[in-house]
Write a structure and sequence with these properties.
The structure is a homodimer of 188-residue chains. Chain A has 188 residues and is an all-alpha fold. The first copy, chain A, has helices at residues 10-30, 36-42, 47-53, 57-79, 85-100, 106-114, 122-141, 151-166, 172-182. Chain A binds chain B through residues 111-112, 114-116, 149, 152-153, 156-157, 159-161, 163-164, 167-169, 171, 175, 178-179, 181-184, 186-188, and chain B through 111-112, 114-116, 148-149, 153, 156-157, 159-161, 163-164, 167-169, 171, 175, 178-179, 181-184, 186-188. Chain A binds a DNA duplex (30 and 30 nucleotides) through helix 1, helix 2 and helix 3.
Chain lengths: 188, 188
DNA sequence: TAGCCTTTCGGAGGTTTACTCCGCTATGTG
DNA sequence: CACATAGCGGAGTAAACCTCCGAAAGGCTA
């Protein structure tokens, strides 16, 4: 079942790019809940065109985020080589936090896709979860991080904290330190 | 500046109560983002009447939640007498979590009011924060909980976890245990 | 280059929800 | 009982979502 799809027509590709750019700008300014009609308008494209390329808001978010997820995955692979698995994990969690706070509302969008295989963002969530799992396994087998902890936990906690940080205080980093500190094994 | 307000007229009080009941039902069924027109309709009251009594959605949520907040405050006062300040704090956090997960969407509503003095829910947030502060101070002076931690942190973390629990897995309790465990002082 | 088939475009229009405004009604007081 | 007014209700405006289909553009073939 190979869906041989011919290349996009010139106007289609042009509009696709314009929409992506406009969406990035709108998300940066108004968060991921920005009006889709506004995005279409500022891309100078009809609303129908937006919906044809991106049937749902999440599809649009996914497209905007795609490169970032690939980068996070690559960073995780690099960090697997780190001499300190614990520090590697924490470092990656900070990268993940930075990613989740790129746009207001993004953490919510990601969170609502983690357990919804129908969501266009599900694939991205899985990728991140796998990256986290690998780093976590390393840190756990080094005895640095409590063994009852899954990659899914990590993603959820980071997203929850990113979301909390959106409301007052920009405290996401502080809260992350607090929580991450508590995830280490107890040496009692 | 004593605003001497005469008692509500009979029809006004009747409608107020009907709206409160309808709102509770709607929130329980559809979350705190339930349609306000639906609430007015099921209360058999005009939409204008709803808005007169509750100018914003948050005002309505506040009214529905009021008793619960009073109860949480009372529970905190009782728990202050507990022989184990640490266990008392954790116990109260579990109560707080149960409260924050009463309705889908509630954690989000609370979180967005914590740092917004203009919100009708701000007062409730302050009450909870103060309750948490007192229990926290006890546990901290007993050396059980890390000293760099504020009541505001507690409320935000619990709400963030409650919110995370709404999305997939009903894992709020597990995540709370995980995080709470990490808030204790390190005995190294 | 011209003609034709297909992909893609665009926005009018239907729907849902939020919220306001003001003529009418119910209440309770003298 | 009548009058002053607090309170009612819903029509109307606005914003955002999303669908549908006639019109336009692209690109292939001769």
């Amino acid at each position: 079942m190979t869906t041989t799809q011919r290349p996009m027509r010139a106007d289609a590709r042009r509009n696709y790019e314009r929409l992506l750019t406009a969406a990035r700008d709108a998300f940066a300014g108004n968060g991921t809940e920005a009006s889709l009609e506004d995005i279409a308008r500022s891309a100078e494209v009809g609303i129908g065109t937006l919906y044809r390329h991106f049937p749902t808001r999440r599809a649009l978010i996914e497209a905007v985020l795609h490169d970032g997820v690939v980068t996070l995955d690559a960073q995780a692979r690099e960090l697997l080589e780190s001499p300190s698995p614990e520090e590697a994990l924490l470092e990656w969690l900070r990268h993940l936090m930075a990613h989740a706070t790129t746009y207001r509302g993004l953490a919510a969008a990601l969170m609502s896709s983690i357990d919804d295989p129908g969501s266009e963002l599900y694939g991205s969530c899985e990728t991140l979860q796998n990256s986290g799992d690998r780093l976590l396994a390393h840190a756990q087998s080094a005895g640095a991080i409590r063994p009852d902890l899954t990659g899914a936990d990590l993603i959820k906690l980071v997203n929850a904290i990113a979301w909390a940080g959106e409301h007052g205080g920009n405290e996401a980093d502080r809260l992350l330190d607090l929580v991450a500190d508590g995830l280490r094994t107890r040496d009692r």
